[in-house]
Amino acid sequence: MKSKNSVFQELYQALVTWAEDVNQHEITDIVNKVEQSKLYLQAAEKLPEEKVKQFVDNLRFDINEFITQNEAQAKHSLYLGLLNESFWKNMQAITDKSQVEWSELDEDIKHRGLYKTGDFIGFGLLECQHCQEKITYSHAADVADCFNCGGSSFIRLPFAP
Predict the structure, then answer these.
(1) Residue 33 CB contacts under 8 Å (≥ 6 apart), including other chains
(2) Which is nearest to 108 in space by CA: 120, 96, 90?
(3) How far is CA 142 from the centre of its chain?
(4) Is 146 within 8 Å of 131 (Cβ atoms)?
(5) Which pairing describes strands 124-128 and 141-142: parallel, antiparallel, or unpaired?
(6) Is 87 strand, coil or helix?
(7) Which of 8, 21, 81, 148 has a CA positioned 20 to 30 A from the CA of residue 37?
């Protein structure tokens, strides 16, 4: 077993190594970022407002062009589709389920709890009437055929609290 002194020496050496690393890397990085920020601010102060507006307008135009040119590709992107679904799933997880139930009550009354392929649903848990497969809709969408059996009739189930 190690002596008390050797344990303290190891702890002290680890602390010294950590402090040297912080001094060498992190503090230097912070100082560099602050200096770089100062330079950006000085440059921005020298720019006339008209130039800043022109830059913002150009950036807005470039972003709009990028979106327009890549919209079709993005629409069919599996990655972006999964990212979108993941976002809505996370939003659903933090949403008050009772509030969702109240907001969907009007639609449930209109549909009498029965949804067909092509109907619009906000949030909801639908159960296929043919195979009892449960499909969760975490955002507003048109009801699609059952993934399991291709069925087109669904009953909306309440969310678990």
Answers:
(1) none
(2) 120
(3) 22
(4) yes
(5) unpaired
(6) helix
(7) 21
